[in-house]
Each structure stands twice: as structure tokens, then as C-alpha cells.
Amino acid sequence: MTVSLYGLVAEFATSQQLLEALRQVRAKGYRRIDAHTPFAVEGLAEALQFRDNWLPFIMLLGGIFGAVLAFGLQYYAWVIDYPLNSGGRPLNSWPPFLLPTFEITILSAALAGMLGMLARNRLPKPYHSIFNTPYFDRASQDRFYLCIEAKDARFQLKTTRQFLLDQHPLRVYEVEQ
């Protein structure tokens, strides 16, 4: 049975060491990296170059879809399928359609945001290869971990390991899939 390598993980004692190592890793050209910390570290998201511009767009599309669907359903029901002249109003009077359309717009935007977030984060995922790292449970207590994935274009086991060791971590681990 062949075991494939997920990546290399470096363990650091402080958040500042992690941030400095992360800056060096980025400068070296690695792109498939991740960091795990016991608390929020200021500047970590910028150092990892997180981009989160996709969620508002997904929610906008979900809201537009919900608004068109709600308005279209009401229009079809009141004007085409079962036209009922009540009090001399026109069949396609839009003011009564506004409140349900608004509610469905908000609901569909929220659902699209939730489903989009789950899909983009590849969740639910009860298991991740990083959990194979020895002592990784300390990532929720007092240690800071930096992972370079083997899928990275610049990843070569020997040179990447030496590069991580040059950042003065406590330890460097090979993580299997």
C-alpha cells in the first residue's frame, strides 16, 4: 500500500514566529499553504492572502433568483392561472406582490450564502489530513502550525523541508494523506 504525502507542517511557539515564517514562505513563491492557530492572529489572513469576494456575489445571485421566482409565481397564480377581479383592481397589480417577494428574496439570498460558503470551504469535512500531524491537538492550545501542501508547484521534499527548518520552527513533520 502506497502512502502519499499531504505536505510538510512546521510547528512554532509564537504567533510572531509563524507570521515571519509565513512571509518568508510567500516570498519564496509557495502558494498552497495554510496556518493553524489557537486564537485569531492579527495579520494572518493578509499574510495568507485570503480573498473573500465571492460570497456577496453568490448571495446577490441567490437574491435575484428568489425575487424573480417569487414575483413570477405570484404573477402566474393571480394573472394567468386564476384571474379573479376583486374590487376592480387590475389583475397584474404589483403592490400586493412586494411583501412576499421581499421575504423570499431575503430567504433565498441567505440560503445561497450558506450553501455557497459550505461549498467553497468544501464542508462538511469531518476528517482532514492535517490531523495526522503528531501533537496537532496543541493547535487549539498553545502552538502555531504552518503547512505547505505537496500539491504546490514549488514543493520538493528535501528543499522545502530545509527551507522550513531555516525558519527555526520547533519541529517539522511530514504529513501523510
What features would you describe in this structure?
By secondary structure, the protein is α+β, with helices and mostly antiparallel strands. The protein has 2 domains: 5-51 and 129-176, Alpha-Beta Plaits; 54-120, no CATH class. Helices cover 45% and strands 14% of the residues. The chain contains 5 helices and 4 strands, in the order E-H-E-H-H-H-E-H-E. The chain has helices at residues 15-28, 44-48, 54-81, 98-120, 157-165, and strands at 5-12, 33-36, 144-149, 171-176. A 4-stranded antiparallel sheet has the order 2-3-1-4, with helices on one face. The chain is rod-shaped and about 80 Å long. The model has no long low-confidence stretch (mean pLDDT 92).
Strand coverage percent: 5-15%
CATH topology of the largest domain: Alpha-Beta Plaits
Shape: rod-shaped
Low-confidence stretches: none
The secondary structure category is: alpha+beta
| SS element count, helices | 5
Largest sheet at a glance? Answer: 4 strands, antiparallel
Instruction: Tell me the total number of β-strands.
Output: 4
What is the annotated CATH architecture of the largest domain? 2-Layer Sandwich
Class of the largest domain in CATH?
A: Alpha Beta
How are strands sequenced across the largest beta sheet? 2-3-1-4
Q: Into how many domains do the coordinates divide?
A: 2
From the alpha carbons, calculate the radius of gyration and give it in angstroms. 26 Å
Helix content: 40-55%
End-to-end C-alpha gap: 12 Å
Q: List the helices and strands in order.
A: EHEHHHEHE
Mean pLDDT across all amino acids: 92
